[in-house]
Structures are given as C-alpha cells and as structure tokens.
C-alpha cells in the first residue's frame, strides 16, 4: 500500500513498509486451518482466560522486527510475541502483530496489525492495518488519515454528541470485570447504543466518526500505543478510565470529544450527568 502523501511524519513511509510486511506474513493464514496455541497460564483449566496465538502472530512480528533491526538498529522494540529490546531507546516501536486474535481465528475481520512509535517514551505515530479489508489508518498526535482502495481521507471524530445520542462499543473482556461490567450496563441505559465485542477496528471507527466512544480493558502497551496517535490526531480523547496516561492502563476510555469523554467517565464512576 502506497504511503499517504498527506501524513507528515518522518517515519510514515517506513511504518507503511512494516505494515505491508506484516500483511504479507498474515494473510496466508487467514480463514485457513490453523494450529492455535493458548498462552494463558491456566491453559484449558476451569476459569482460565483463553489467550490464543497463531503462526500469523509470530511471523508478522518477526517480519516487522527484521525490518526495524535492519534499518534502525538503534531503535527499541516492544512486541507482544517476542518481548522487549532496548526499551530505553530514544525511538521505540510497539507492535501487536494481530490485535484481536480471537476474531482472527474466527474469520471475523475486526482484527488488525498495530504498529506504534514512541519518542522519548511518548506516542508520536501509529498505524492500524487491516489487510483483509485493504484498510489502513495512521495518525500523529495532530492529524490522522485513512487509506483504502478508493483513496485516502483525513479522519475526524464526531463532535458535539450528547450522551443520550452516543453510540458506544466495549470490549467483551469487560464482562470478566464485575464492577466495570455493572457500570457499563448502567451506562447502556443512558446512551443510544452500547455493543460488546469490539476489537482494534472500533478505535478506527471512532476516529472516522462512525461511533462515539470505545471502552476497553485487559490491555497492554502494545494494544494501545498505536491507537493513541490515531484517536488524538482525529480530534478524539483517549485516557485510562481514571483519566491518566493510557499507555500504562489496563482499561481505557476513548471518545470523540472531551465533553462526551467527561460525561461517560462520570457515568462509569457512578456520578450523575446532566448532558
């Protein structure tokens, strides 16, 4: 996929190379018979959370790492499958080769490759690539763009949406967090729509203005580092549920603008809102 002419960042073209390489590694496995491993500590024991990984995850991350180490050996890498190298480097790439592996193994195209770049510990660039759909979303902290077969367009999150009109997606992992699940269920009674089961593509739909908020939990840095520049660059707001740095959070809230973010946060924390 050709680099966006409109996205101004010195690593934009290289990030496209990384996403292209990941897509080439992943697609031969998609909707094919797979050997699926379970990374969860409990394996198949009662109560264990199924944490699948496939050769697609491993080969995609390996392809990305090869390119980074070849072209920018001084850069650090944080990857879901193969760990951390030089985390204290000035530039650090944060990789989730297949975010939404459960969707991937189910043949549902809500998964994607997430490639984030940190500069001195802060997110500065992110890519979300969905090679099956031929869609790529990328952002800096000031702008964000989407490319697909019919061209590219700037992303703009939806603004001025009242809480009662909001359409929200939440990750299914919330159901395993009783207090948060109860709060999300209460929130559902105050908004137009709240659906469960979002994967990384939900953040892209927020940035593109199709939905108004996303609530996710069970996260690590590689799940969120690429998403922060995309959402922020589109004009949205993304934080931990308590309003702090999302990179260090296990649960996050993203919304199209600050007013809606504040209203949803208040509802999740049991406070009244008059929006």
If strands are numbered along the chain, what order do they take across the biggest sheet? 4-3-5-6-7-8-9-10
CATH fold label of the largest domain? Fructose-1,6-Bisphosphatase, Chain A, domain 1
Largest sheet: 8 strands, mixed
* Binned strand content: 25-35%
Shape: globular
| CATH homologous superfamily annotation of the largest domain | Fructose-1,6-Bisphosphatase, subunit A, domain 1
Structural class: alpha+beta
Distance between the termini: 42 Å
CATH top level assignment of the largest domain: Alpha Beta
What are the low-pLDDT stretches, counting only 5+ consecutive residues below 50? Answer: none
What is the CA-atom radius of gyration, in angstroms? 18 Å
State the order of secondary-structure elements, H for helix, E for strand. Answer: HEEHEEEHEEEEEEHEHEHHEEH
Give me the CATH architecture of the largest domain, please. Answer: 2-Layer Sandwich
Rounded mean pLDDT is 92
What's the count of strands? 15
Give a description of the structure.
With 275 residues, the protein is an alpha+beta fold. It folds into 2 domains: 12-154, Fructose-1,6-Bisphosphatase, subunit A, domain 1 (Fructose-1,6-Bisphosphatase, Chain A, domain 1); 163-268, D-Maltodextrin-Binding Protein, domain 2, CATH 3.40.190.80. Helices cover 28% and strands 27% of the residues. It is built from 8 helices and 15 strands. The strands form 3 sheets. Strands 4-3-5-6-7-8-9-10 form an 8-stranded mixed beta sheet, with helices on both faces. It has a 5-stranded mixed beta sheet with strand order 12-11-13-15-14, with helices on both faces. A two-stranded antiparallel ribbon has the order 1-2. It starts with 11 loop residues before the first helix and ends in a 7-residue tail after the last helix.
């Amino acid at each position: 996929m050709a680099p966006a002419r409109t996205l101004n960042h010195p690593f934009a073209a290289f990030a496209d190379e990384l996403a292209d390489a990941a897509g080439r590694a992943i697609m031969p496995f998609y909707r094919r018979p797979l050997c699926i491993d379970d990374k969860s500590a409990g394996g198949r024991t009662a109560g264990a959370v199924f944490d699948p990984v496939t050769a697609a995850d491993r080969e995609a991350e390996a392809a990305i790492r090869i390119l980074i180490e070849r072209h920018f050996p001084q850069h650090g890498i944080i990857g879901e499958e193969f760990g951390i190298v030089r985390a204290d480097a000035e530039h650090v790439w944060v990789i989730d080769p297949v975010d939404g592996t459960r969707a991937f193994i189910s043949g549902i195209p809500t998964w994607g490759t997430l490639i984030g770049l940190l500069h001195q510990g802060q997110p500065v660039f992110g890519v979300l690539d969905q090679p099956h759909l031929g869609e790529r979303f990328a952002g800096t902290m000031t702008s964000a763009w989407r490319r697909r077969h019919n061209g590219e367009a700037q992303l703009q999150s939806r603004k001025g949406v009242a809480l009662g009109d909001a359409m929200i997606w939440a990750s299914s992992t919330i159901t395993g967090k009783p207090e948060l699940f109860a709060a999300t269920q209460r929130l559902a009674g105050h908004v137009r729509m709240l659906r469960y089961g979002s994967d990384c593509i939900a953040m892209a739909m927020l940035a593109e203005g199709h939905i108004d908020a996303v609530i996710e939990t069970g996260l690590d840095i590689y799940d969120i580092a690429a998403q922060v520049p995309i959402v922020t660059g589109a004009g949205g707001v993304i934080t931990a549920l308590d309003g702090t740095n999302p990179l260090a959070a296990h649960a996050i809230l993203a919304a199209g603008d600050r007013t809606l973010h504040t209203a949803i946060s208040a509802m999740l924390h049991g406070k009244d809102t008059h929006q």
